[in-house]
Amino acid sequence: MEKARKSSSEPDLMAFYLRHCAIGFVLSAVFVGLILWFDIAGLRHLVMGSDIGWLAVFLLWFFHGTVFGSVQFAIVVMGQAEDPNDGGHRGGTMIPAVVRSKN
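RE: above sequence
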């Protein structure tokens, strides 16, 4: 069997994905930290007053990290799309065609 050849221009997708998800989790940590610092909706008071407040903070961080990481990855992937207005005719020239109805 021949091993699949990897193009030199093809990014290492797993490293690409993990790097941008890690950025999302860092942003999540900042976001949750700001929520607790400014005591939005009294969350800091609730977390500090509970014996399992650490679980609430972990869940806030984890689920926000999942969302922020997904959004971060999606923004980067969509930002790599080719510009449709670059002037290239990859799909060929479009010519209108007349289609007659049988009615």
